[in-house]
Amino acid sequence: MSNVFYAPGEQRAAKVNDLFARIARRYDLLNDLQSFGLHRLWKRRVVQLANVKSGDKALDLCCGTGDISFALAKCGAETTGLDFSEKMLEVARARSQKSEVKNPPSAFRPLTSDFRLPSFQQGDAQQLPFPDNSFDAVTVGYGLRNLTNWERGVDEMVRVAKPGGRIVVLDFGKPPNALWRSIYFTHLKCSVPLIGLLFCGNSQAYAYILESLKHYPAQLAVAEKMRERKLANVRVINLLGGAMAINYGEK
Ligand SMILES: C[S@@+](CC[C@H](N)C(=O)[O-])C[C@H]1O[C@@H](n2cnc3c(N)ncnc32)[C@H](O)[C@@H]1O
């Protein structure tokens, strides 16, 4: 049976927007529950690879509630978080106001005194409102898979990155090992929607993860696309045996 939040083609964006509007308030909690908190480590890895320093400009696409944007900003980058969901951006902006970000516990203290909160703006990752060669690093976490056209998303990341700029993509992956892939897909099919139902009252929103992953060619195709775009040092970093993956390249 197809998922109520997945539609191919032109209807895709409206369905995805509806999905994130519904789960925005519970998104951070559910992320922790379904990944056992591991998403925090993987996002930290993304930020390390983005390798920004004070004064750099960073763009975090499909920023959602802003985890990666805040972490880039803490490294001193002038950071823009972009998302098309106003509801997700509302949560990100509310987090900006919280002492959690302004006065973080020591482990999360800004690495630099130049710390400025990210600016959050609404926009479509497939049609970025920025000139060519604008950013030292462009990241996207769990976003590319949701786009109507993920390749267009990569093209836009490449376009707005400066020469030498780092492009980093984190998303669910497809494990190369068949046994592990089937265990992991069973987790996405059964436990993740159950967690969604229990803590968010919505199993379909979380069943969407597997549905969208089935239609997304994942880490190997993203690497291929990066090579096609002539990025340098293209790398795939498989996490948890490829259940998650980071794609990296330099313009
Ligand atoms: C799974 S969330 C990821 C949020 C955040 N990056 C994280 O890792 O926690 C995916 C986000 O992509 C956004 N999104 C989906 N399609 C988009 C598009 N075409 N343009 C901009 N944002 C989009 C959604 O609104 C949602 O906030």
- Rg, rounded, reads 17 Å
Q: How many H/I helical runs?
A: 10
Bound molecules: S-adenosylmethionine
Low confidence ranges = none
What does this structure look like?
The protein is an alpha/beta fold and 251 residues long. It is built from ten helices and seven strands. It has a seven-stranded mixed beta sheet with strand order 3-2-1-4-5-7-6, sandwiched between helices. A hairpin with a 4-residue loop joins β6 and β7. The longest helix is centred in the C-terminal third of the chain and has 23 residues, at 178-200. The radius of gyration is 17 Å and the shape is globular. The N and C termini lie far apart (41 Å). 41% of the residues are buried. The model has no long low-confidence stretch (mean pLDDT 91). S-adenosylmethionine binds at residues 13, 16, 20, 62-64, 67-68, 83-85, 88, 124-126, 141-143, 146-147.
Keywords:
251 residues; alpha/beta; 7-stranded mixed β-sheet
Quick structural summary:
Helix 3 (38-50) crosses helix 4 (67-74).
Helix and strand arrangement:
Elements: H1 12-23, H2 27-35, H3 38-50, E1 57-61, H4 67-74, E2 78-83, H5 86-97, H6 99-102, E3 119-122, E4 135-141, H7 150-160, E5 161-172, H8 178-200, H9 203-214, H10 218-228, E6 232-239, E7 244-250
Parallel strand pairs: 1-2, 1-4, 2-3, 4-5
Antiparallel strand pairs: 5-7, 6-7
The structure holds S-adenosylmethionine.
S-adenosylmethionine (SAM) binds next to helix 1 and helix 4.
